[in-house]
Amino acid sequence: MSDPNPYLTPATFAPEPVAIFQSNDLFRRVGNDLIVWEGAVLPQRCVKTNLPIGTGDVTKTKKLTYTPGWVWFFLLGGLLLAVILSAVLSKRVNVTYCLSKAQANRYRNRLIIGLLLLFGGVGAMFVPAMVNLGDTQIGVAIGGGFLSFLTGLIFLTQIEPLRASGFRDGWFTIKGCSKEFLDSISPM
Predict the structure, then answer these.
(1) Residues 6+ apart with CB under 8 A from 142
(2) Which residues are within 8 A (CB) of 35 and not within 5 positions of it... i.e. 6 or more apart?
């Protein structure tokens, strides 16, 4: 048997890629945690209610990001340092999951409320500077606007039903599934 032509591109004689995991091996339950691999397609049931998916229900493919918690301690050293470390150390996974129509509407409403509170808070903080109000009224308006802004940020952090909470050896730990959904997956 002769050696392959050294002038050919590697793709012309490279062996076929070997699939490491079958499609049903891309997710598993370990205790009360859902563990997924890149490209996992979860069962056709709502991850929040465990009801079978019907017409009008939503199937989403989302890229979830895991960033180690200790990275955010570098905020004390500067925002730029924390953002750079977060970008370098974060891991991402694509997961396909289903939500019932009611649950999808719930998360859409959280997004709308969060955006309204966020922009309303910004407006409430800057409008008093343009209007001739007393010192007490300006303080109350700015304080209320800031509180609205923070509440909007909290709502916006809660608009995704699933989140990656851990990473080890290529496997991601996913939080946000209901106990009923996890119980429907055979433990490993």
Answers:
(1) 124, 125, 128
(2) 27, 28, 29, 171, 172, 173, 174
pLDDT of residue 76: 80
* Pairing verdict, β 91-99 and 58-66: antiparallel
Query: What pLDDT is stored for residue 170 in this prediction?
Result: 87
Q: What angle do CA 172, 155, 77 make, to 5 degrees?
A: 65
SS3 66: strand
60, 99 Cβ separation under 8 angstroms: yes
List, for residues 148-179, the tens digit of each pLDDT value.
999 998 888 888 899 999 998 889 999 999 99
Lookup result for tokens 């049931």:
45
Strands, sheet with 171-175, edge to edge from the N-terminal-most edge strand = 27-30, 33-36, 171-175, 163-168
The residues spanned by each domain of the chain are 10-183
Q: Give phi and psi for 58, each to the nearest 5.
A: -115, 135
Q: Cα 10 from chain centroid?
A: 37
**CA distances, 73 to each of 68, 76, 77, 85 (Å):** 10, 6, 8, 11
**C-alpha dihedral, 103 to 107 to 113 to 119, nearest 10°:** -170
Range list of β-strands (E), 3-87: 27-30, 33-36, 40-46, 58-66
- pLDDT under 50: residue ranges of the chain: 13-23
In this predicted structure, what is the pLDDT of residue 35?
92
